[in-house]
Amino acid sequence: MFDESTLSHYRALKDRVAMVELDSCLVQLTGSDRHQFLHNFCTNEIKELPNFGVCEALILDGKGKVLFHIHVLNRQDALLLHSMANDAEAMVEHLDKYLLRDDVQMTVISDHKSKFVTGPESEKALSTLLPSKLEPNQLLELSSGGLIAHVELAGWGYLILSDDEDLVDNSIVSAGPDALQALRIENQTPWMGIDIDNSNLPQELLRDEKCISFTKGCYLGQETVARIDAIGRVNRVIVLVKSEVAVESGAELIVAEKTVGKLLSVSWSPDQACFLALAMVRRPHEKAGTELTCGSSLVTVV
After folding, report:
1. Mean pLDDT across the stretch 159-181?
2. Which of 43, 140, 173, 244 has the greatest number of CB atoms lying within 10 Å of its CB?
3. pTM
4. What CA–CA distance (Å, rounded) separates 88 from 69?
5. CATH class for the domain made up of 22-168
6. How far is the C-alpha of 55 from the C-alpha of 181, rounded, in Å?
7. Kindly report the CA angle at 225 between 86 and 137, in degrees rounded to 5?
């Protein structure tokens, strides 16, 4: 259950507008070869990404397992890789292994502040910053040097990157991470380091349309992705489950005395009046309505 303050933040995020400070990281790629270089190491189309376009992508290892989950922001003079995990240094170290004669420079941007503004009144609340409607997966560069991207981080909202503490109107409610956690679970948005790790294959996340181009050609890990696409399925996937009683992240899910999955992120959902969780579940137990044993209680796939 939520305390009064968290419930108030949740209602602002769901019904009006609120802003959450993010503990995220940012890597910048410059140089004339930056698009081709990144294109070779992630699952989405980078070479054809338009100026001020944004895409979600995965960076894989050679076996096709997920190493990093990012949003790529295409500025005119640089690519920015935004991650909700604190993995900027690891990302640079990984990509640097493949940097030979390419004209690419990688920098961890440590002085930015990341904020996420979401809710049905977001566009109105940001009207002084947005000269016109900012479409999904579009980026706006402000005269102050700050950036606003319309992206899906916990449902759709506006990612604001700036070192200006006063950029966002202080009339917008500041919400805490617990309220945002509830929102992103309801929207079935997994985060790296919490729901995703290096044991996962890309298609297990059920974000193919958002993260994967199946026509872009070769990249590191592409053979595994293509093989899974040809087969048509993976053996386990992320699903949303609900429980009438409190359950804990990491708890095993059981069917007929066999472990078929585990809980990932868990939160109370005031709107659903139950606990909701993202869970990794083996097929065929991912179907809506399936009941799974979790400790002494049951959870149901939504």
Report:
1. 88
2. 43
3. 0.94
4. 11
5. alpha beta
6. 22
7. 55
